[in-house]
Amino acid sequence: MRAVEIENWALSVLDRVQQGLPIEDSRVELKANWIKANHAARRIAGHCSASAGDKILWLIGVDENTGITGADHQDMATWWPEVAAQFDEQSPGFHDLALTYNDHVVVALVFETDRVPFVVRNPAHGQQGGSGGPVEREVPWREGTSIRSAKHSDLVRLLVPAADLPRLELQKATAEL
Fold it and tell me: Number of folded domains in the chain?
């Protein structure tokens, strides 16, 4: 996705925030601040896995209720490696873009969802007195705007269509004006 497309998508969401319209849906998530790595990884994994191949947009520095508060883009350099470390084997690819809206810096993150399902580690697994129990890893799933563990049927619906996709190879192309 090109930077101008990310910016356009983010600006359209920010306009809706300013108008007080509902925002969060199956493709958009708003965060007032950078959230803890393990919580972010679980939410990102669930959001990506349930998106059915569509890219998803996270806007950091925006709250649906209080509006645009702004975010520090410098935090991305330390935040993302901590988030990526919570994933098992593969974390989603992403594009980030800092943009200014009404004198506030907002960070737009567009996540690629073509490598689903995404598996995250349970941070409480193996800890003394931890509530994680025997569950070492999980495939989170977004339902509405909440996150739960994926069910068998979710994974079947996710994986079977991907296995049936035809493979196309461009042999020749021309373009004229």
Answer: 1
pLDDT tens for each residue of 76-114: 888 999 999 999 999 999 999 999 999 999 999 999 998
Note the pTM of the prediction, 2 decimals: 0.82
Residue listed under structure tokens 């883009």: 73
Give 3-state DSSP helix, strand, coil % of the chain, rounded to 5.
Answer: 30, 25, 45
Q: List the structure tokens of 175.
A: 């373009």
Within a domain: residue 42?
yes
CA 89 to CA 103: how far, in whole Å?
A: 39
Expressed as residue numbers, the domain containing 44 is 3-121+135-157
Q: Are 67 and 21 in contact (CB under 8 A)?
A: no
Main-chain dihedrals φ then ψ at residue 79, nearest 5 degrees:
-70, -50
Task: Tell me the CATH number at 48.
Answer: 3.30.950.30
Tell me 126's DSSP state: T
